[in-house]
Amino acid sequence: MRSMHRRALAALVIAALVPLAHPVTAQKAAGPMGALTTILPEAQTDGPWTARSTATGFTMTNRTEENAVRYFYVNAGEAKGARTVEVDVSVEPRGTGPALAGLLYGFDPETKTYFMLVIESGERIGLYRRSTGGMKRLAQIAASKFGRGPYRLALEEEGATVTMVVNGKRLGTMQADMAGDGATGIIAAGIGTFAFTGFSVTSQRADAR
């Protein structure tokens, strides 16, 4: 089983996340977590994290280490710049520090760079970019604008433009020259219980054929 976690994150919203990265390849798969289904553990304890696959999805729990981060990812697929990546997410914070979970996007195992669209402590939705220079928040909005969780998070590619979508409502767009590159998956950080279901990577081009 290939999974990643890191326990040293000094300040979750501003510090660089530098998780370990092992390549994972999984294409189309049946199950509540789509292409991730075949690589997620049935039940596992790894450091501060416990993880479990269920009939409806996947849950990660961390009760002890507020700076712990864990994620799972799969290859990006073939439809560069024409994908929609999405997942349903619920976040139950268990401490006073940040607790976030959501989509991992554009992960590069060589440079350890990526984007993440996440629910923060069940209160906010944030878009972050981890570059070689560190972590930067690109956008943030109150989650209350979209009702109560779980929240359906999505990133829609159209060429080099990526649109952020929550519960079917478009938040805005960003320009990313790496759109379509890297790996996609799920990510969780902080103390809490993080539930995921309905992970999918679909292609507009494939749907059009």
How would you describe this structure to a colleague?
Helix content is 2%, strand content 53%. The protein has one helix and 15 strands. The longest helix has 5 residues, at 204-208. It has one helix at 204-208, and strands at 4-6, 43-46, 49-53, 58-62, 69-74, 83-93, 99-108, 113-120, 124-131, 134-142, 151-158, 161-166, 169-175, 183-190, 192-203. The strands form two sheets. The chain has an eight-stranded antiparallel sheet with strand order 2-3-4-15-6-11-12-13. With 209 residues, it is mainly beta.
List the helices and strands and how they pair.
Layout: E1 4-6, E2 43-46, E3 49-53, E4 58-62, E5 69-74, E6 83-93, E7 99-108, E8 113-120, E9 124-131, E10 134-142, E11 151-158, E12 161-166, E13 169-175, E14 183-190, E15 192-203, H1 204-208
